[in-house]
Amino acid sequence: MSGWETYKGLEVPQTPTGDAGIKLKDDLKELADRSLATSAVLGSVIFVGADVNGDKILAEDNNNFFWDDANNRLGIGTKTPSDLVRIQGQNKGLLMSTGSTVGGVNDTMITFGAGTSASVQWTRLRYRYGNSDLYFERRSAADVWTNVMTLDWTKSRAGIGTEDPDTLLDVRGPISLGLPPELPLTNPDASQIVFYTKDNARVLKLRARFPNGTDKLVANQT
Fold it and tell me: What pTM value is reported for the model?
Protein backbone atom coordinates (compact mmCIF):
# COMPACT_ATOMS: atom_id res chain seq x y z
CA MET A 1 0.00 0.00 0.00
CA SER A 2 1.36 3.38 -0.95
CA GLY A 3 1.95 6.14 1.57
CA TRP A 4 -0.26 9.16 2.11
CA GLU A 5 0.40 12.91 2.11
CA THR A 6 -1.50 15.35 4.28
CA TYR A 7 -2.39 18.87 3.14
CA LYS A 8 -3.97 20.81 6.02
CA GLY A 9 -6.16 17.89 7.05
CA LEU A 10 -6.66 16.43 3.54
CA GLU A 11 -4.99 13.06 2.96
CA VAL A 12 -4.27 11.91 -0.59
CA PRO A 13 -2.12 9.01 -1.93
CA GLN A 14 1.51 9.80 -2.65
CA THR A 15 1.25 7.83 -5.89
CA PRO A 16 -2.30 8.26 -7.25
CA THR A 17 -3.32 6.06 -10.14
CA GLY A 18 -3.72 7.54 -13.62
CA ASP A 19 -3.95 11.10 -14.88
CA ALA A 20 -7.24 11.65 -13.06
CA GLY A 21 -5.62 10.79 -9.75
CA ILE A 22 -2.69 13.13 -10.35
CA LYS A 23 -5.06 15.95 -11.29
CA LEU A 24 -7.15 15.25 -8.17
CA LYS A 25 -4.04 15.39 -5.98
CA ASP A 26 -2.92 18.71 -7.48
CA ASP A 27 -6.39 20.25 -7.11
CA LEU A 28 -6.71 19.14 -3.49
CA LYS A 29 -3.28 20.50 -2.67
CA GLU A 30 -4.13 23.86 -4.25
CA LEU A 31 -7.41 24.00 -2.35
CA ALA A 32 -5.91 22.95 0.96
CA ASP A 33 -2.97 25.36 0.72
CA ARG A 34 -5.11 28.38 -0.08
CA SER A 35 -5.86 30.46 3.01
CA LEU A 36 -9.25 32.15 2.54
CA ALA A 37 -8.58 34.30 5.60
CA THR A 38 -5.78 36.12 3.78
CA SER A 39 -6.70 35.83 0.09
CA ALA A 40 -10.48 36.42 0.10
CA VAL A 41 -12.15 39.79 0.65
CA LEU A 42 -14.24 40.06 3.81
CA GLY A 43 -17.84 39.33 2.94
CA SER A 44 -16.99 37.17 -0.06
CA VAL A 45 -19.30 34.33 -0.99
CA ILE A 46 -16.87 31.81 -2.46
CA PHE A 47 -18.04 29.77 -5.44
CA VAL A 48 -16.48 27.61 -8.14
CA GLY A 49 -15.50 29.70 -11.14
CA ALA A 50 -13.37 29.21 -14.25
CA ASP A 51 -10.15 30.97 -15.24
CA VAL A 52 -9.04 31.87 -18.76
CA ASN A 53 -7.74 28.36 -19.29
CA GLY A 54 -11.05 26.77 -18.43
CA ASP A 55 -9.83 25.21 -15.17
CA LYS A 56 -12.27 25.42 -12.27
CA ILE A 57 -10.98 27.54 -9.42
CA LEU A 58 -12.31 29.23 -6.33
CA ALA A 59 -13.73 32.64 -7.20
CA GLU A 60 -15.54 35.62 -5.67
CA ASP A 61 -17.51 38.59 -7.04
CA ASN A 62 -18.29 40.94 -4.20
CA ASN A 63 -19.96 43.55 -6.41
CA ASN A 64 -22.66 41.04 -7.38
CA PHE A 65 -22.72 38.50 -4.53
CA PHE A 66 -21.96 39.74 -1.02
CA TRP A 67 -22.61 38.73 2.58
CA ASP A 68 -22.73 41.45 5.26
CA ASP A 69 -21.82 39.42 8.34
CA ALA A 70 -22.07 42.40 10.71
CA ASN A 71 -25.74 42.99 9.88
CA ASN A 72 -26.61 39.49 8.60
CA ARG A 73 -27.66 40.72 5.14
CA LEU A 74 -27.25 39.25 1.66
CA GLY A 75 -26.64 41.44 -1.37
CA ILE A 76 -27.24 40.31 -4.95
CA GLY A 77 -26.08 42.89 -7.44
CA THR A 78 -24.81 45.09 -4.61
CA LYS A 79 -22.18 44.90 -1.87
CA THR A 80 -24.10 47.29 0.43
CA PRO A 81 -27.37 45.50 1.20
CA SER A 82 -29.73 47.63 3.29
CA ASP A 83 -32.25 44.83 3.87
CA LEU A 84 -32.14 41.19 4.91
CA VAL A 85 -31.96 40.30 1.21
CA ARG A 86 -31.44 43.04 -1.38
CA ILE A 87 -31.52 42.47 -5.13
CA GLN A 88 -30.32 45.44 -7.16
CA GLY A 89 -29.87 45.96 -10.87
CA GLN A 90 -31.35 47.80 -13.80
CA ASN A 91 -34.06 45.77 -15.55
CA LYS A 92 -33.27 42.90 -13.22
CA GLY A 93 -35.16 41.37 -10.33
CA LEU A 94 -36.27 38.13 -8.69
CA LEU A 95 -37.69 35.43 -10.95
CA MET A 96 -39.59 32.54 -9.38
CA SER A 97 -40.81 29.87 -11.77
CA THR A 98 -42.12 26.34 -11.76
CA GLY A 99 -41.75 23.64 -14.36
CA SER A 100 -44.99 21.90 -13.39
CA THR A 101 -47.78 21.90 -15.97
CA VAL A 102 -50.35 20.88 -13.36
CA GLY A 103 -51.82 23.86 -11.51
CA GLY A 104 -52.08 23.49 -7.75
CA VAL A 105 -49.47 20.73 -7.55
CA ASN A 106 -46.19 22.62 -7.76
CA ASP A 107 -47.30 26.26 -7.70
CA THR A 108 -44.68 28.91 -6.94
CA MET A 109 -45.33 30.84 -3.74
CA ILE A 110 -43.94 33.70 -1.66
CA THR A 111 -45.20 33.53 1.93
CA PHE A 112 -45.20 36.30 4.52
CA GLY A 113 -45.58 35.60 8.23
CA ALA A 114 -44.43 36.41 11.73
CA GLY A 115 -43.73 32.89 12.91
CA THR A 116 -43.66 29.22 11.98
CA SER A 117 -46.43 27.67 14.10
CA ALA A 118 -49.70 26.52 12.54
CA SER A 119 -51.68 29.07 14.57
CA VAL A 120 -49.91 32.06 13.00
CA GLN A 121 -51.91 33.92 10.36
CA TRP A 122 -49.91 34.16 7.16
CA THR A 123 -50.41 35.74 3.74
CA ARG A 124 -48.90 34.61 0.45
CA LEU A 125 -48.64 35.23 -3.28
CA ARG A 126 -49.28 32.06 -5.29
CA TYR A 127 -48.48 31.71 -9.00
CA ARG A 128 -50.13 28.91 -10.92
CA TYR A 129 -48.29 27.53 -13.94
CA GLY A 130 -51.35 26.14 -15.72
CA ASN A 131 -53.13 29.49 -16.19
CA SER A 132 -50.42 31.98 -15.11
CA ASP A 133 -52.84 33.57 -12.63
CA LEU A 134 -51.58 35.24 -9.47
CA TYR A 135 -53.47 34.69 -6.22
CA PHE A 136 -53.35 36.77 -3.04
CA GLU A 137 -54.25 34.44 -0.16
CA ARG A 138 -54.47 34.42 3.62
CA ARG A 139 -54.17 31.59 6.11
CA SER A 140 -56.36 31.53 9.19
CA ALA A 141 -55.36 30.41 12.67
CA ALA A 142 -57.03 27.09 11.78
CA ASP A 143 -54.47 26.58 8.96
CA VAL A 144 -57.01 27.16 6.17
CA TRP A 145 -55.96 29.14 3.07
CA THR A 146 -58.56 31.37 1.39
CA ASN A 147 -58.33 33.57 -1.70
CA VAL A 148 -58.50 37.34 -1.22
CA MET A 149 -57.73 38.62 -4.71
CA THR A 150 -56.93 37.12 -8.11
CA LEU A 151 -55.10 38.60 -11.09
CA ASP A 152 -56.38 36.81 -14.19
CA TRP A 153 -53.42 36.70 -16.58
CA THR A 154 -55.34 35.50 -19.65
CA LYS A 155 -58.13 38.10 -19.48
CA SER A 156 -56.20 40.90 -17.72
CA ARG A 157 -58.81 41.11 -14.99
CA ALA A 158 -58.73 41.50 -11.21
CA GLY A 159 -61.12 39.69 -8.92
CA ILE A 160 -61.76 40.36 -5.24
CA GLY A 161 -63.67 37.58 -3.57
CA THR A 162 -63.54 35.48 -6.74
CA GLU A 163 -60.94 33.49 -8.66
CA ASP A 164 -62.80 33.94 -11.96
CA PRO A 165 -63.50 37.66 -12.53
CA ASP A 166 -66.11 38.46 -15.21
CA THR A 167 -65.12 42.12 -15.72
CA LEU A 168 -61.99 44.27 -15.58
CA LEU A 169 -62.62 44.58 -11.81
CA ASP A 170 -64.99 42.05 -10.30
CA VAL A 171 -65.82 42.48 -6.60
CA ARG A 172 -67.99 39.75 -5.08
CA GLY A 173 -69.15 41.45 -1.91
CA PRO A 174 -69.78 44.87 -0.34
CA ILE A 175 -67.33 47.73 -0.84
CA SER A 176 -66.72 51.02 0.96
CA LEU A 177 -66.39 54.36 -0.84
CA GLY A 178 -64.60 57.39 0.55
CA LEU A 179 -65.49 61.08 0.66
CA PRO A 180 -66.04 63.00 -2.60
CA PRO A 181 -62.91 64.49 -4.17
CA GLU A 182 -62.21 68.17 -3.79
CA LEU A 183 -62.58 70.56 -6.69
CA PRO A 184 -61.02 71.48 -9.00
CA LEU A 185 -59.82 68.21 -10.39
CA THR A 186 -56.14 68.49 -11.25
CA ASN A 187 -56.15 65.84 -13.96
CA PRO A 188 -58.37 66.77 -16.92
CA ASP A 189 -57.87 63.33 -18.43
CA ALA A 190 -59.09 61.50 -15.34
CA SER A 191 -61.95 59.03 -15.54
CA GLN A 192 -65.16 59.56 -13.63
CA ILE A 193 -64.96 59.07 -9.87
CA VAL A 194 -67.76 57.30 -8.01
CA PHE A 195 -68.56 58.21 -4.39
CA TYR A 196 -71.37 58.33 -1.83
CA THR A 197 -72.81 61.45 -0.27
CA LYS A 198 -75.86 62.45 1.80
CA ASP A 199 -78.40 65.21 1.23
CA ASN A 200 -80.05 67.38 3.88
CA ALA A 201 -82.54 64.63 4.63
CA ARG A 202 -79.63 62.25 5.25
CA VAL A 203 -80.56 60.19 2.19
CA LEU A 204 -77.56 58.28 0.90
CA LYS A 205 -76.79 59.00 -2.76
CA LEU A 206 -74.38 57.42 -5.20
CA ARG A 207 -72.84 60.06 -7.46
CA ALA A 208 -70.25 60.21 -10.23
CA ARG A 209 -67.83 63.11 -10.71
CA PHE A 210 -66.40 63.74 -14.18
CA PRO A 211 -63.10 65.31 -15.26
CA ASN A 212 -64.73 68.68 -15.85
CA GLY A 213 -65.84 68.76 -12.22
CA THR A 214 -69.56 68.13 -12.75
CA ASP A 215 -71.47 65.67 -10.57
CA LYS A 216 -74.29 63.41 -11.64
CA LEU A 217 -76.60 61.36 -9.49
CA VAL A 218 -76.31 57.64 -10.11
CA ALA A 219 -78.77 56.28 -7.55
CA ASN A 220 -80.52 57.04 -4.26
CA GLN A 221 -80.53 54.70 -1.34
CA THR A 222 -83.73 52.71 -1.33
Answer: 0.60
